[in-house]
Amino acid sequence: MRSALIATLLELAEEDARVFLLTGDLGWNVVERFAARHPDRFLNVGVAEANMAGVATGLALAGYVPFVYSISTFASMRCYEQVRNGPLLHRLPVRVVGIGGGYAYGHAGPTHHGLEDLAIARTQPGMTVLAPVDPAQTRAAVLAIRDLPGPAYIRVGKGGNLPVPGLDGRFALGRPELVEEGHDLLLLACGGIAQEASRAAAILRSEGVSAAVAVMAHLPFSPTPALIALLARFRAVLTVEEAYATGGLGSLVAECVAAEHLPARLERCGVTESFAAGSGREGYLRERAGLDGVSLARAARRLLAKGTG
Fold first, then answer.
1. Do 236 and 185 touch, CB atoms closer than 8 A?
2. What is the rounded CA–CA span in Å between residue 82 and residue 54?
3. Which fold has domain 2-156?
4. Domain residues of the chain, as ranges?
5. pLDDT in tens, 98-108
């Protein structure tokens, strides 16, 4: 997904002289293509994320569309105040790119596990929050916000994110994309963990459960008509996110169900223990958090059983 991001930025930069890329001394073996092609629109500010956000704010005020590139934990937290007081308050087109959300940097330990970035970004009503699920949708999401007047936060996978079957890169702000039909249960996912949601649906179908799968790569501040319409079709909804279970996709769906008085029973699958997993490979950490396909299928069975008791 990182390579898809940079390829898309190169595409945009060829058409729009305002596109500017900044990095906090990260992204090597990825960002060099942009730096070589547009050295006058690339800046490595060093390990100084807060300063990078300030520089991006100045560039936006000067007419540029800056993309700020860092690991998701650093991009969402180290420069939060600067993003809040700059691009958010002044409605500037700064794009904050958080790389490797969730457990992508598994062996680096809890300091590098991006579990709160979606909640942090979504708490501000002026921020457009995106968590595409695969490379093709990453490209589509970046293109969709090319003319967005305000700021955006984009969670991008570190690598190894396979295409989600049935998605074909579809993306639109505020719209969930249905990738597998079903009527017993909806699994709704965001970010790279969507592959595990599809895996869970396959397990459930082998057991006779008709499980639908959809992705919601835009996490808006308030529920959208398209999201409401999708949720209204199902009596049971399982949200899947490689993030803390509060504040992100699960909270968005819970708000939607409550505000619209929808009949759906809801199970929010996300991380519920702070720093409990330690370090390790991404797959191992997902399993510990109950976010692998087998665990998600088990959670779906429990949710369905609640409606039959």
1. yes
2. 6
3. Rossmann fold (3.40.50)
4. 2-156, 177-306
5. 999 999 999 99
